[in-house]
Amino acid sequence: MRTDIRNITPSTPYTGLTEGLQLYAAGTSRQFMSGEWRTSTPVLDMEKCRQCLLCAPVCPDSCIPVADGKRQAFDYDHCKGCGICAAVCPFGAIAMTED
Amino acid sequence: MRDTVEIRWHGRGGQGAKTAALLLADVAFQTGRHVQGFPEYGPERMGAPITAYNRISRGDIRIHSNIYQPDYVAVVDETLLRSVKVTDGLKQGGAVIINTPKSPEEVRPLLNGYTGAVYTVDARAISERTLGRNFPNTPMLAAVTAVTGVMDKESFFREIRASFTHKFARKPEVIEGNMRALEEAYAAVEQAIRKQDTPLRKTA
Amino acid sequence: MNHTDKNCKTIQMTSREIRDRMSGNEAVAYAIRQIDPDVMPAFPITPSTEIPQMVSTYIANGEIGTEFIPVESEHSAMSAAIGAEAAGARTITATSSAGLALMWEELLLAASNRLPVVLALVNRTLSGPININCDHSDGMGARDTGWIQIYAENNQEAYDNYIQAFPIAEDPRVHLPVMICQDGFITSHAVENISLLEDDAVKRFVGQYEPEEFLLNPGRPVSVGPYAVSDYSMEAKKGQEDAMERAGSVILETAERFCRMSGRKYGFFEEYRMEDAEYVLLLMGSAAGTAKAAVDQLRQQGIRAGVLKLRVFRPFPAAELAEAIRRCGCRALAILDRCESYNGVGGPLGSEVTQALYRAKVYTETVNYIYGLAGRDFTVEHVFGIVDELRDVADGKVLPPDHKYIGLRS
User: Fold this and answer.
1) Which CATH architecture has domain C269-405?
2) pTM above 0.90, yes or no
3) I want to staple C332 with a disulfide (CB 3.0 to 4.6 A). Which of B98, B111, C248, C390 is the partner?
4) Which of residues 133-152 of B touch C (CB under 8 A)?
């Protein structure tokens, strides 16, 4: 039986959970705003960025989208502020700021 | 035939005692009997002594233990007589059937005081003559069938031929040799039975 | 056959009986050919090796379309089985002893992910000492993994139980994996008479596998086996336990449907000459047949003995077992374990059966016997000895030993 898993909360009785805790959806992590966990935020200085694209693949949360060979703005909904992108940037284009 | 006949096979790993027990179960099944054919596994290695068993019955067989008081014992390799007490528990009125060129009188001293019927058949010579190799289990199967009377001669040869035809579907050239091996062994034992004049077989 | 039943016989059987003879492993492989499952990952181990070997031959001969996955270990076999079943394929495997032990982690995952994998377990002792022969330590060791477990007395039951496994496992009320157990060598390698069913009848009985949710289902995505925080884990486990409880009625319904097809009746257990039995042996597997043969002989001597052969160990039919013992009113009960629990007081059946009796307030004398470890033979004479002891216990001549070995040199 497919149930809308968004209605399942920590107060749902055990009979209301799905069989084997199956999730009837794909890519659900996108709906989970892990950006709320962030205490330090990367900020990009476009003046310094050379579009070398070293930052995009090292992001553990895939928060640096790339389109047409250029990195786009940070996905702050999911960025946890780990700072790896700032550490790998050879041009000092990413600064970590305290929120 | 009694309601249930229990047979214990002694052989060495690789000689086909297990196969013989399974074949006997096979042909007995074809004649309408309830059957069991099973091996007892130890450290299964070529040459190690092995035991296999048959129960052949007119009714359901429920027991799943080994056989300690067999009606008949078949010894596929006479060298086992030195190390294995093959007649242990063998019932009065039963018989031991041994693959050896020797006579029953010659092997009896190796049987720990056993006084019952002994049949010998030179399964190795028969096999080498008919099959060109030493497959003692095939002649032994015929000898055991002849002595135990678990089925009549005609049924045995009919069903074993059917079984071989199925088993050797890809090499039919070996069927006739196997049949000759069975016939020779069966005839030798029939002759021995007449000579001993023991009414071993209780007819069905 | 042993299990024909009056109620069944009155119904038109839906399969012709095919009389044959084969070993227990052959019987399971034959059932697999008839069922034609989608996927079989397997790794060989004595004494279950013949099953994947024979299935491979069926596949090579083009008789079935099963995808055989030759894996490098049993850990991988069960992992692949979980993946295949989650993907939507009817999946089977077979193993024994250390092979089952190596599947440990995945056994629990198959059950908690509610995947109806069917495993043919050919019972063999767990090392050590290393030994290839039968006891139930492998199956009993996996008793808390969430798998349904059904044990067979002979080749016929191994075949019949195997066919029934699929409708039980795949029932939407259950969705749990099933272990179909038979005694290594004693039945797996013994040729016996067997009554087979027609291919079409088996196919109809098992039906097409149509899972409600599966991974390879475009447009209806599903995620299987997600991490669960403590807010949800305990609830998930209770949900799984509920499914195991529901499996009981599904097992009985399936047995009834199987009876209409075959004429052979099955339940949680078989009661053999129990009606007026004063002394009862409760046991599982091939030794039950030996016990029945011994009981027949004891009855001829006027000793009222009976056998309760447990078929379904998981779910454990505690209330039904206790009721059967209450009904027969036996004076003493022998509980036989082909497994040692190393708890100092007996085996797993000993613990669970006495618990069932106590909770149902059935206070009969019980003795827990350990027998048949690592292939130690169990004979009718052993049964005679047990019944002798039960009589002495019931007569108050001896105190019941709480834990006793059968056939042990001492």
Assistant:
1) 3-Layer(aba) Sandwich (3.40)
2) yes
3) C390
4) none
